[in-house]
């Protein structure tokens, strides 16, 4: 917007001018009626253009012009008057007027011309100021930038080959970098400045001049010993420029960081436990030799890979593992592990991993801990894994033995920007774009605070205000927030550009050097040492480290516990002080054999083995502080410096006393188990489900009528012996167990022995191991020859059949007699005279007859109970069948029935329906106005296992507390007394029990407890 001060004593002219000029949209007019008033306005503010009348009271236009020029020689001045005398025009132009315009022209043309002249004058003024400021800005940048900047002219021989180059200009910073003074170098050839035969970098500079393509490379000036990043670019044929950025400190820090990282990697690499480390982005940054051996995956294949890639070597696919629980307590991760626990920040767990060691599988014990920076923020995590297969197998062997027994700025490298007095950006170079991620057009015109992190804003604004008021910054450290939200640390220098007129700051140039990597390198160097100590400290095995002088430099918590010696007492000590901790005297131990071989020292150990640079040994030690003796397994390895020299050593110690005791217990248990199996006269088999291989004991081979040489040890030869009529049933029973539909495999079937004779056998077995997907891997079981038992059973069945037939005939005959008796009772009632005593006797006879009928019905039901094998039955279907056969109140819907067991099946006698019939009849007969019956199912804990509960409850009167324990007794109650007794007996066939748990006055509630193996969930 162009601000115009218009002076005219005619208010109409002022109003018309304001309207016409205001239509342009970019001109703002302030009108005053006299030159005196205009003078007052100009003392308080500035205008881009002044338009003045000539003839005015008190002070005319020429006098006003002279006053303005005495104050500001540059502001555009237009004389706008009705007087058209030539001498007036000449005098006005001589006194500094920029334009002259007469009022008597056509208004449209007049004000269009005036608008044009105002714009032209304002633009000329802006251009002039911009040129001056630009020259000042770039000269200040050139003189004050942190980088060395040199302008050259390339010198070529007559055939066009570059032979030298001439220094045309250089900033003062070049003296600090190169050692030669800028003023002495300007105008001299490079061959005169540098002692070498060929001027430095001549070939690169020649190529930049010939192709016009910039070049960036690193160099070093021996005179100063400093390293630089040099950018060269052409500025016209035969001329080029270079920018020098010092990188000496950055190179030194990178080398320090590499050394620290190398030492950390070496320590992790020689740890005896399989160990890996990830950073906060869950990228693998360390993978030691032990984990390479465990997984078969080399560090070259895994280091640098992203989240969950470390799960693939263990499980065959990318998946979270224990180390991920450091970042989030995901129950999905936790559930995959056995015996998971936390101690402080560390997480411990055990699990079986079938993919390890080329598919051989292993039980592992793992510990994961976070790695913190100095601010306590988690920057990564470490997990160590120990193969505890031997211990676990010993434990599993003991358990299996029990189970057998029980279930058988453009080119500048530095970011440069310029902002005005209002701290709004007006320039933004490419390096700044690369640094911040913002394009220049996104930032120009916006306040510099856009780049300030919230937490640093107040301090940074104070520094910026100081730079505006003073002479600028010198190596001021201010962090900036990039477009992607990251924060970078930058070292800033600044210079102010001031107005020549009044010395006010019109712009500030800032130039930065990013030092984020340097700062991070310093932090990493500190962090690496801290992490190294943390890693050693959290290791589960007692571990200590010595340096090349054999002084203790690390002593972890585990070794404090084992030895009773805290780290404060031992760290820093040498002269074999660590030997005294274990043996009571200062003497060499295993770790000392890393530095030199000692046969006398080796002889003190039970066992010593060397693999490459690592030593392994076994011994029995009794630390004097604790007095606890134990068998230990020690591992010692050297630590190397970057030149491959031994700089120290590390030793880890593992207590193996428990393993030795477990091995002895296992041996004793195996001997006892062998005696039990031989005494039981049972055939024992162990099947590898994947390969079909089968191992059999001697008794099973005898049952099959074979000798050891007759069998190849495959499951198929056993399947070929099964009777064709029984084969499908055997396979179905196996499939049900493999799929988890039955808790174990159990079936009777016929086998043909080698001699051709068919025998009956009873098989019972159970899957002992499954893979991660639930597929069976190993199954064990027993086979018993039940041919003789089967014959006795068949004989017993035949006897039962005859008894059942006799009982059925007897019941039928008695029922007929009872029916006749009931008829005679009816005739007696009609035929004899009314006699109260006689009627009472007749009623009693009728009651006796009904009781006999009910007892016959009970005898029939009791006889049927247990005749058929139990089977899986859906509870909801059994309840509905019972309801259909129950009194009319339920079957017709007069009493509400709610069944909430649609997805539950139970393993029960086929007479389960009779149980629900009795319960429903009990509610209607004795409930006292029951309007609803509800059947539901839930699970509850019972000891160490869960059990299912079928609840049948009504809204009647309930059962008195004194009767609850007696209602299931035989012949208790007002009806037959057999209903609940019979229900209890039917449920007991498959291990179920029934109790009454209702509250008197609120309804009866019967709870049927179902063992865990006798119920299952099914889809609707």
TrEMBL record:
Family annotation (Gene3D superfamilies):
3.40.50.2300, Histidine kinase-like ATPase, C-terminal domain, PAS domain
Enzyme nomenclature, EC number:
2.7.13.3
The Response regulatory domain covers which part of the protein? 3-118
Q: Which residues form the Histidine kinase domain?
A: 809-1014
Judging by the UniProt lineage, the source's domain of life is Archaea
Q: Which UniProt keywords apply?
A: Kinase, Phosphoprotein, Transferase
Q: Name one GO molecular function term.
A: phosphorelay sensor kinase activity
Q: What is this protein called?
A: histidine kinase
Organism (species): Methanothrix harundinacea (strain 6Ac) (Methanosaeta harundinacea)
């Amino acid at each position: 917007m162009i601000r115009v001060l218009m002076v005219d004593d005619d208010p109409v002219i002022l109003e018309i001018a304001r309207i016409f000029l205001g239509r342009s949209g970019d001109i703002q007019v302030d009108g005053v009626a006299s030159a005196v008033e205009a003078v007052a306005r100009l003392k308080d503010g500035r205008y881009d253009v002044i338009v003045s009348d000539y003839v005015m009271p008190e002070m005319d236009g020429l006098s006003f012009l002279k006053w303005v020029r005495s104050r500001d020689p540059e502001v555009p001045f237009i004389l706008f008057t009705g007087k058209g005398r030539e001498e007036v025009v000449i005098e006005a132009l001589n006194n500094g007027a920029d334009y002259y315009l007469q009022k008597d022209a056509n208004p449209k043309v007049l004000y269009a011309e005036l608008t044009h002249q105002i714009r032209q004058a304002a633009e000329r003024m802006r251009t002039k100021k911009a040129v001056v400021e630009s020259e000042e800005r770039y000269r200040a940048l050139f003189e004050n930038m942190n980088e060395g900047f040199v302008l050259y002219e390339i010198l070529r021989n007559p055939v066009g080959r570059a032979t030298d180059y001439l220094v045309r200009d250089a900033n003062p910073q070049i003296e600090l970098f190169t050692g030669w003074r800028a003023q002495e170098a300007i105008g001299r050839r490079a061959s005169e400045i540098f002692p070498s035969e060929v001027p430095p970098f001549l070939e690169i500079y020649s190529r930049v001049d010939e192709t016009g393509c910039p070049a960036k490379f690193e160099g070093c000036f021996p005179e100063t010993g400093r390293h630089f990043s040099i950018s060269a670019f052409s500025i016209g044929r035969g001329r080029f420029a270079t920018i020098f950025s010092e990188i000496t400190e950055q190179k030194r820090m990178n080398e320090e960081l590499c050394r620290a990282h190398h030492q950390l990697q070496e320590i992790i690499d020689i740890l005896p436990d399989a160990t890996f480390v990830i950073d906060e982005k869950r990228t693998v940054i360390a993978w030691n030799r032990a984990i390479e051996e465990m997984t078969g995956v080399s560090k070259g294949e895994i280091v640098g890979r992203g989240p969950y890639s470390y799960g693939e070597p263990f499980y065959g696919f990318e998946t979270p593992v224990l180390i991920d629980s450091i970042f989030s307590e995901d129950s999905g991760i936790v559930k995959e592990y056995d015996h998971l626990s936390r101690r402080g920040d560390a997480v411990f767990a055990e699990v079986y991993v079938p993919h390890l060691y080329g598919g051989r599988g292993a039980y592992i014990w793992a510990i994961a801990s976070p790695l913190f920076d100095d601010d306590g923020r988690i920057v990564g995590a470490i997990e160590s894994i120990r193969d505890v297969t031997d211990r676990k197998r010993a434990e599993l062997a003991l358990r299996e033995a029990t189970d057998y027994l029980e279930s058988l700025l453009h080119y500048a490298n530095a970011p440069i920007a310029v902002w005005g007095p209002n701290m709004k950006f007006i320039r933004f170079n490419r390096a700044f774009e690369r640094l911040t991620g913002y394009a220049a057009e996104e930032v120009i015109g916006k306040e510099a605070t856009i780049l300030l992190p919230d937490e640093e804003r107040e301090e940074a604004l104070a520094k910026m205000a100081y730079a505006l008021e003073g002479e600028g910054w010198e190596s001021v450290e201010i962090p900036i927030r990039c477009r992607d939200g990251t924060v970078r640390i930058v070292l800033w220098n600044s210079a102010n550009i001031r107005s020549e007129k009044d010395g006010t700051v019109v712009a500030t140039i800032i130039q930065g050097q990013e030092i984020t990597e340097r700062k991070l390198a310093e932090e990493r160097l500190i962090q690496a040492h801290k992490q190294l100590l943390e890693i050693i400290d959290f290791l589960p095995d007692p571990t200590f480290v010595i340096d090349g002088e054999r002084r203790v430099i690390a002593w972890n918590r585990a070794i404090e516990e084992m030895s009773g010696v805290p780290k404060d007492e031992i760290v820093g000590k040498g002269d074999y002080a660590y030997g005294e901790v274990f043996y009571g005297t200062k003497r060499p131990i295993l770790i000392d054999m890393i530095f030199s071989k000692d046969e006398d020292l080796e002889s003190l150990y039970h066992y010593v083995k060397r693999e490459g640079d690592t030593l392994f040994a076994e011994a029995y030690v009794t630390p004097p502080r604790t007095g606890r003796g134990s068998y230990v397994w020690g591992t010692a390895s050297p630590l190397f410096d970057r030149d491959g020299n031994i700089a120290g050593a590390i030793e880890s110690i593992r207590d193996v006393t428990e393993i030795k005791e477990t091995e002895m217990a296992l041996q004793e248990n195996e001997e006892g188990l062998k005696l039990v199996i031989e005494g039981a006269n049972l055939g024992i088999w162990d099947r590898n489900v994947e390969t079909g291989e089968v191992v059999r004991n001697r008794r099973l081979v005898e049952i099959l009528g074979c000798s050891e040489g007759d069998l190849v040890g495959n499951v198929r030869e056993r399947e070929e012996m099964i009777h064709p009529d029984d084969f499908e049933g055997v396979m179905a029973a196996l499939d049900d167990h493999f799929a988890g539909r039955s808790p174990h495999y159990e079936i009777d079937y016929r086998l043909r022995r080698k001699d051709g004779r068919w025998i009956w056998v009873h098989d019972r077995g159970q899957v002992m191991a499954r893979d991660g997907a639930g597929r069976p891997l190993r199954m064990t079981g027993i086979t018993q020859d039940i041919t003789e038992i089967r014959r006795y059973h068949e004989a017993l069945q035949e006897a039962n059949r005859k008894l059942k037939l006799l009982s059925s005939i007897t019941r039928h005959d008695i029922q007929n007699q009872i029916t006749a008796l009931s008829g005679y009772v009816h005739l007696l009632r009609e035929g004899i005279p009314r006699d109260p005593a006689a009627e009472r006797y007749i009623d009693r006879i009728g009651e006796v007859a009904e009781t006999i009928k009910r007892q016959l019905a009970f005898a029939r039901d009791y006889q049927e109970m247990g005749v058929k094998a139990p089977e899986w039955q859906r509870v909801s279907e059994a309840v509905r069948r019972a309801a259909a056969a129950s009194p009319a109140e339920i079957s017709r819907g007069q009493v509400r029935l709610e069944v909430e067991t649609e997805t539950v099946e139970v393993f029960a006698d086929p007479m389960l329906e009779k149980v629900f019939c009795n319960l429903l009849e009990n509610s209607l007969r004795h409930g006292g106005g029951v309007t609803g019956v509800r059947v539901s199912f839930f699970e509850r804990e019972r000891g160490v296992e869960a059990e299912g509960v079928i609840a049948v409850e009504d809204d009647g009167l309930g059962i008195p507390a004194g009767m609850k324990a007696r209602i299931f007794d035989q012949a208790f109650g007002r009806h037959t007394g057999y209903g609940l007794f019979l229900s209890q007996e039917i449920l007991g066939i498959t291990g179920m029990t029934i109790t009454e748990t209702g509250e008197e006055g609120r309804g009866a509630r019967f709870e049927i407890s179902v063992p865990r193996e006798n119920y299952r969930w099914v889809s609707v």
